[in-house]
């Protein structure tokens, strides 16, 4: 059941709607504030999760500030959620009370389109339901993980292996799968040379995962100030992209380039770093359009691609992979009262490498 500290009405399946402590953005230009939000009644296939930790993703900032389109406020963000199951609906078969679980960037999909049937719910043809700021199947607006509890249908709840501490597992629900999926799809592994552009919340996970897959890993960053970190995380090489000689020295080198930055870059220059048949995959989402010369692709049979998180099956595979190799994210744990400060620090690239909120402080 919900803890008394959450100031909730006692939940009974199909009877009441709980109110939980949370942090929300009142508007696009306003700081997040402490508040309460309502969670839906626990349905037959739902899982009630007591949230232990919630990660801060750059996407949270873009979304609550309206960078990616208008939002309905107040809005509680957060799509990196780790916690413990405290109650399940009477038809739930995948989870039991006490399970260590996680919720990522989506909480529902149509379940019957060709992409959903293939396990690619993130590309649901009817649109997946985002963990916050989206219209759920019952018509309500979803509210995210900056809160004490959440109710999610069992099919979108992940099992967090015992080998992963919940706090460092939390960012894996977004940053982990966002980098694992393209590296997995494009075959990062022994004998492959992988470059990771940017060493931030996404990039540091890209380095860890590519290294664990057995690839030769190079970090391409604006400067060398994080070189020591990059090598510690598993990179074999580290180069500054502000140095023009980097693009000359590394021309034609890489099988895969994973672009994790959300800022405009010279795509043609980076495509020049690919070996013949190589692929550059973007997971960062800059608001500006990026130009590419067709000959940058034609000359060498190269691929320019994009990737968005991963399906539920692949996300579970990623969690198991990270547990098997003994790593989670590098985090800075903060109380809820520091969320707004953390947002500013994320924008200033002043975090190594992911903020995680202690949900006990909500």
TrEMBL record:
GO molecular function: alcohol dehydrogenase (NADP+) activity; zinc ion binding
Top-rank taxon: Bacteria
Cofactor: Zn(2+)
UniProt domain Enoyl reductase (ER): residue ranges: 27-357
UniProt KW Oxidoreductase keyword: yes
Keyword Nucleotidyltransferase: no
Record field: catalytic activity: a primary alcohol + NADP(+) = an aldehyde + NADPH + H(+)
InterPro entries: ADH-like_C, ADH-like_N, ADH_Zn_CS, CAD-like, ER, GroES-like_sf, NAD(P)-bd_dom_sf
EC number: 1.1.1.2
Keywords attached to this entry: Metal-binding, Oxidoreductase, Zinc
Pfam families, per database record: ADH_N, ADH_zinc_N
Gene3D superfamilies hit by this protein: Medium-chain alcohol dehydrogenases, catalytic domain, NAD(P)-binding Rossmann-like Domain
Similarity field: Belongs to the zinc-containing alcohol dehydrogenase family.
The protein's name: alcohol dehydrogenase (NADP(+))
């Amino acid at each position: 059941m919900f803890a008394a500290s959450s100031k909730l009405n006692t939940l009974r399946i199909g009877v009441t709607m709980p109110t939980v402590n949370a942090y929300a953005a009142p508007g696009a230009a306003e700081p997040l504030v402490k508040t309460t939000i309502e969670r839906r009644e626990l349905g037959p296939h739902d899982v009630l999760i007591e949230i232990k930790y919630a990660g801060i993703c750059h996407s949270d900032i873009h979304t609550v500030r309206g960078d990616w389109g208008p939002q309905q406020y107040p809005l509680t963000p957060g799509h990196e959620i780790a916690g413990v199951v405290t109650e399940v609906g009477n038809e739930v078969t995948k989870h039991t009370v006490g399970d260590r679980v996680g919720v990522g960037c989506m909480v529902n999909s149509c379940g019957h389109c060709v992409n959903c049937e293939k396990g690619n719910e993130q590309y649901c043809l009817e649109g997946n339901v985002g963990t916050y700021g989206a219209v759920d199947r019952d018509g309500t607006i979803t509210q995210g993980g900056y809160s004490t509890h959440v109710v999610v249908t069992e099919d979108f709840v992940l099992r967090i292996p015992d080998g992963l501490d919940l706090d460092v597992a939390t960012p894996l629900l977004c940053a982990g799968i966002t980098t694992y999926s393209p590296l997995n799809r494009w075959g990062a592994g022994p004998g492959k040379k992988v470059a990771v552009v940017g060493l931030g919340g996404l990039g540091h996970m890209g380095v860890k995962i590519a290294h664990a897959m057995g690839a030769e890993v190079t970090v391409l960053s604006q400067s060398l100030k994080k070189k020591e970190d990059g090598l510690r995380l598993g990179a074999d090489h580290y180069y500054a992209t502000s140095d023009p000689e980097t693009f000359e020295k590394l021309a034609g080198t890489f099988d895969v380039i994973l672009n994790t930055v959300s800022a405009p870059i010279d795509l043609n220059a980076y495509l020049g770093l690919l070996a013949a048949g190589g692929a550059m995959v973007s997971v960062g989402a800059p608001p500006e359009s990026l130009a590419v010369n067709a000959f940058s692709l034609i000359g060498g049979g190269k691929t320019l691609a994009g990737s968005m998180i991963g399906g539920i099956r692949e996300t579970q595979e990623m969690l198991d992979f990270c547990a098997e190799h003994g790593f989670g994210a590098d985090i800075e744990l903060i109380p809820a009262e520091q969320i707004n400060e953390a947002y500013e620090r994320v924008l200033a690239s002043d975090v190594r490498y992911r903020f995680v909120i202690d949900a006990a402080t909500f």
